[in-house]
Amino acid sequence: RGSRDGSGRGGDDRRGAHGDVRGRQQAGRGERHTPRSSGATTPSPASILEPASPATPAKPTLTPQQVERRVETLVSEFLMLGDEQEAVECMEELPASASGVLISKLLGNILENNSPENREKMHALFTLLVRQRALDKDATARGFLDCEPLRLIFDTVLDCKYAPEWFGEFIGNAIRLEAIPVSCFQDICRTIKTLVAEDEFGPPQEV
Known about the structure:
The protein has helices spanning 2-33, 45-49, 64-81, 84-92, 97-112, 116-131, 137-146, 148-151, 153-159, 163-176, 182-198. The protein is mostly helical.
């Protein structure tokens, strides 16, 4: 009886041991299948495949004097070299206000150097920059309105009797190219009339 009792107890011990092993194995399998969380976040496929947008280069901050000097250099170099690509690139690097400065420089150059060849080059430069969309429309229109030789045309004509004709050709070309609206020309005319009316001497007798 003692041996049977001992064998019975041994069998129970063995079954208990086997049960403990199976329990640990199942627990181990459960631990292996349990996902572990980490602090790092996985980027989505869209964010990985999406290309970074290129940064637009900022235009340099220039004083009005610097803008005027650069525009003057642009016009002078175009007169000498006629490099169209260089002229467009230089204009695109300048702020919008440079478009207005350009108008004054071109019209002033037409008066100072009144040869037909010079006028053709000024027309060519303006046409080029308009077609390449290198000019700001609002600043261009403002350039015509603020151009002193044009605003004071009755005084300008005393120095150059062909000034109204040459300016008229330039403005007409600007309207044909849609660089300025027709209303801009009307504003120019109103400005000239207002300045003449405010002048105590009126328009010059020679006009």
